[in-house]
Amino acid sequence: MKILITGGAGFIGSHLCKKLHSQDHSIICVDNFLTGSRDNFADLTDKPNFEFIEHDINKPLDINCDQIYNLACPASPIQYQKNPIMTMRTNVLGSMNMLDLTKANDARILQASTSEVYGDPSEHPQKESYFGNVNCTGPRACYDEGKRAAESLFFDYNRKRDVDVRVVRIFNTYGPNMLKDDGRVISNFIVQALKGDGITVYGDGSQTRSFQYVDDLVDGMIAMMEGDQIGPVNLGNPNEISIGELASKIIELTDSTSQIVYRDLPKDDPIKRKPNIGLAQKTLNWQPKIALDEGLKKTIEYFKNL
Ligand code: NAD
Ligand code: UDP
């Protein structure tokens, strides 16, 4: 199969490229390096059946393929808030370009949507049927509302233009290939702990997230692409932890002398987040396998070697 992966030089995209390439597919990786890196796919560069195209998906692309995984979009709050208009444009215009390309090829496309469509949720854990609680004028809106608009486009292209779509809602994911200055919590804490710097907990650290290791996510995305249902389907690890506890855990696992330092909680930062993954368990026969401690150890090793 010929598979196009947008955002393939990014954290999740690079793992997806590697996994699908190892399954003997022909991979076309597209990225504009906004938050990605050539290093992330360095071990594939010279391999047969791997092609990299430097391209911004906001411009149309003419290429033959059977499947598209649409991951192009900065995912770290710090990164997408640096480029809010570009973030919205990529979610709307970029998604339309990829949907048009899917139609032209009579292919199938999977959208990497997000738990951020639930905003600061009043339902806990979050099920796919929950409509969400998003501030459409706040600093996170470019991403949250952008991803919500992208979902609308995917479902309208399916209903009106018969495009074969899949939508997954990804919850916080971590692992090797995150940029060390990416700004997300796990990469920040590990790098700070390894350097002996202060661990920057925003707010009082009581806010929660549920973290999944990237290998689990990649398996879920492929299962969704190969399956029959359109979605949306949550992909995440329901093991919820407060950010304060996460900081202590990373200090312990790195054997670090770092101390916790408290910083202001960013505006609209969700207070709690945990996926209900019943739908994925039932329909994809998928559930995460890698526990937080195990995944953190692998990620710590990666950052140590950088
Ligand atoms: P990332 O920032 O590491 O990767 C995104 C990639 O997209 C980068 O390589 C970037 O250069 C590229 N990109 C951005 N805009 C582009 C454009 N206009 N044209 C071409 N390439 C472009 O982020 P990630 O964590 O790997 O996330 C990948 C996808 O998964 C994103 O769509 C994100 O919204 C989604 N997601 C991630 C998480 C998570 O916890 N990591 C959670 C929910 C959803
Ligand atoms: N966070 C933190 N310190 C950091 C980075 C993030 O306390 O150095 C917090 C952030 O406020 C949020 C949680 O960790 O409550 C997860 O943040 P991240 O940016 O990784 O992802 P989000 O789920 O907010 O998109």
State the assembly state of the protein chains: single chain
- The number of helices is 9
The low-confidence parts are none
Radius of gyration: 18 Å
Bound molecules: nicotinamide-adenine-dinucleotide, uridine-5'-diphosphate
- The CATH architecture comes to 3-Layer(aba) Sandwich
- Residue share in helices? 25-40%
Note the main sheet. Answer: 7 strands, parallel
Mean pLDDT: 98
In total, the number of strands is 13
Structural class: alpha/beta
Largest sheet, spatial ordering of strands:
3-2-1-4-5-6-11
Q: How far apart, in Å, are the first and last alpha carbons? A: 33 Å
> What is the CATH superfamily classification?
NAD(P)-binding Rossmann-like Domain
CATH C-level category: Alpha Beta
β-strand percent reads: 15-25%
What would the CATH topology be?
Rossmann fold
Give your account of this protein's structure.
- Helix 4 (141-161) links the parallel strand 5 and strand 6 (164-170).
- The model has no long low-confidence stretch (mean pLDDT 98).
- Helices cover 38% and strands 18% of the residues.
- It is globular.
- Helix 1 packs across helix 6 and helix 5 (185-195) packs across helix 9.
- It contains 9 helices and 13 strands.
- It has one domain (2-174, 212-238, 272-288): Rossmann fold (3-Layer(aba) Sandwich).
- The strands form 4 sheets. The protein has a 7-stranded parallel beta sheet with strand order 3-2-1-4-5-6-11, sandwiched between helices. Strands 7-10 form a two-stranded parallel ribbon. The chain has a two-stranded parallel ribbon with strand order 8-13.
- It is an alpha/beta fold.
- Residues 6-7, 9-13, 31-36, 56-58, 71-75, 90, 94, 112, 114, 170, 172-173 line the site of nicotinamide-adenine-dinucleotide (NAD).
